[in-house]
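Page 47, continued from p. 46.
Same chain as before, 228 aa.
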Amino acid sequence: MTKFTLEQFMHYSSLLVLGILYMNFIGVCVFSITCGSYIPTLSYLATFRTHDVIVVLALTLFAFTLVPVFISFHIKTYGALSLDEVVFMILLEIAIFTLAIMEGLIDESNGIEFNPVDNLHHFLSITLCIITITWIYYALNFIEIAERSGGERDKLYICWTVYKVGVVFAFLTLYEWHFGYTIYNNILTNPFVESLCEWTLITIAIRFPVLLSKPLNYSIKFSSKDKN
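Result:
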C-alpha cells in the first residue's frame, strides 16, 4: 500500500516553483544586471527576454498546483457549507487561478516597447493579493467549522499565524510599491526594501499551501498486488 499525501505534493511542487524563480533570479544577477546595487523584483525579472518565459512558466505551474488544494478544501468542508458559500469560494478560486497566470503574462509583456497594458500590472497584482487573502481567510474559518473533532487545531493555528505574517508583508509590499520611488524615499522606503518585502511575500505565498494541506489532511492510497 502506497500513500501519497497532498502535503507531499505541495511540498515538492512549491520547492520546484521557488527553485525555478530563484534560479532565474540568480541567472539575471550573473548575466544581466549587477544585483549588488539593486535586487530585482519578480516583475522586473519578467522584462528580460528568456527570463520572462521562466517567470510565466513558474507562475503557471504554481496556478495548476493550487487546483488539488482547492479540490481538497471542498472535500474537507463537504456538507459544512451552504450552497452560496461553496459558490463564493469556487469563484474566488477561479479568479486566483486565472489572475496568477495573467500576472505572469502581463509581466512578460511589460518588456515590449509601447506596451498598452503596462498599467494593468499593479491592478492585477493588488487584485490577486486581495482575492487570495480573502480566500485564505474564509478557507481557514470554514475548515475550523468542518473540523468538529478539534484534532487539527494546532495545524490551523500555525496557518493563521503565517497568514497574518503574509498579510503584513502584503501591505508592506504595497506600501513600498507606492512610496519607494517617490520623494518619500528613505532608509525604510526604497527599491531595496521593496524587493526584500516582495520576495518574502512571494516565498510565503508559494509555501503557504504546504501548511494549508496539513489540516486538509488529504491523501491518495495506491495498492498493488503481486501476480505469481
